[in-house]
Amino acid sequence: MKKIQLTLLALLLTSSLNASNATHEKLKSTMRSMLSSMELIQKGGFYADPSMMKIGVKDLKQSISLLDAKHAKTYLPQEEKYAYKFATKRESMIIMYADDMIESLNTNNMEDALEDYSQILRQCSSCHLRIRKN
């Protein structure tokens, strides 16, 4: 009987570790997608190509929607107090600046669009500096 219980416990622990690894891998993949989007926006800004920047913004917003901030407590550090609230706020700020960037690009205001890019980068950096330091 003990062997069966130990076997079941081992299976339960293994499955929970696999789920945790899958969540971590999905998060890493999403972050890489967001980085690629930011690089595309930057490249579009460097070459003054609004269409490239718009594609980058669209990709960024798609990637950020995969983060699922409602469940941030499951993948953010437990020891970091209110990390999920901080990350959720950064997410909403990134979306706000991305929407503003699209408006700026639609009115051919490249200077404001680049300022929005800078603000998005600041949101990303602040989250990484606070949460990833652990």
And the CATH topology? Four Helix Bundle (Hemerythrin (Met), subunit A)
Number of domains: 1
Overall 3D form: elongated
Helix content: over 70%
The parts where pLDDT drops under 50 for at least 5 residues are 8-19
Instruction: Output the helix-strand order.
Output: HHHH
Kindly state the number of beta strands.
0
- Straight-line N-to-C gap: 41 Å
Features:
elongated; Four Helix Bundle (Hemerythrin (Met), subunit A); 134 residues; 80% helix; mainly alpha
Walk me through what this model shows.
This protein is mainly α and 134 residues long. The chain has a single domain, classed as Four Helix Bundle (Hemerythrin (Met), subunit A), CATH 1.20.120. It is elongated, with a radius of gyration of 19 Å. About 9% of the residues have low confidence.
Topology at a glance:
Elements: H1 2-46, H2 50-65, H3 83-106, H4 110-131
Would you kindly provide a brief summary of this structure?
The chain is built from four helices and no strands. The chain is an all-alpha fold and 134 residues long.
